[in-house]
Amino acid sequence: MNNKPLKNTTSLPLKNSTSMQFPNPPPQSPPHLPGSISLLDFLASNVVLGEEVYHFGHPHHVFHMVDVPEIFTCAGCNEKGSGKRFTCQQCDFKLHEFCGMVPEELKAHPLHMYHQSLFSSKPVKGGKSTCDVCGKPAKGYTFKCNACSYQMHPCCAILSNEINISVHPHPLRILHSVTTSVPNGDPGFVCGECNRAKRSGRVYRCTVCEYHLHAVCAKRMVNGLPANGKKKSSKLGTVARLASQVIIQLIGRLVQGLGEGFGEALIQSDPRGRR
């Protein structure tokens, strides 16, 4: 590491805390707030110095933020991603932006508000193997409830009980459950992103119309991937360039000591038009 002066940052003071405080109870609709704080600004378990990050999971090398369209596998959560990531310039270790900035605990998360969830860097041997939000395998970084078996990927923890996406004009609210009483377990809707009906995990439904979105498809937006499936790196083209510009904003004040408002996760995906 050279001796050049480190750039100033906009990272928030830690105040001896590595937790993220969520509202209790969560709001029924996204609050309209004039300000927003990006993921790079929220409380983290790491030290941010200018554009350099020291991460506990890879302490012997420094990380730098890059924004490129190529698909990568996050060394933290083992989920795919595209666009912004922390990368080690001395080896092939890469992390999602949010996996590089994870807090040690979540308090009263909107999707699991009554218990505290603690960060875990690896799966518990013989423990639960899937995420309770997207229904996909949990192979690396997770948040695990310290009172029950609930767990979720860091990228799923970015989601909330109500979200807004750029491809649909109305707020989407997560359903408590999806009925399977109809023949063949058909839930009675088709996801507006992947055009499939039944998939693992939870489902969002529009608060105004019949638009539905799988939580796993919302997660792909968070990860910077096209919602209709992973594309080969050589064929990313315009869609991948748009995906690499995914913006995840947490409205309100995120960290303990700066207030208790979590606000809403705004997921900006490729602007393919309103549905």
Automatic annotation (TrEMBL):
Transmembrane domains' residue ranges: none
Residue numbers spanned by region Disordered: 1-33
Keywords for the protein's UniProt record, in alphabetical order: Repeat
Polar residues composition bias: residue spans: 1-22
Skewed-composition ranges (Pro residues): 23-33
SUPFAM superfamilies according to UniProt: Cysteine-rich domain (SSF57889)
Limits of the DC1 domain: 57-99, 111-157, 167-218
UniProt key word rRNA-binding: no
InterPro entries per record: C1-like_sf, DC1
Protein name in the entry: DC1 domain-containing protein
Taxon lineage: Eukaryota, Viridiplantae, Streptophyta, Embryophyta, Tracheophyta
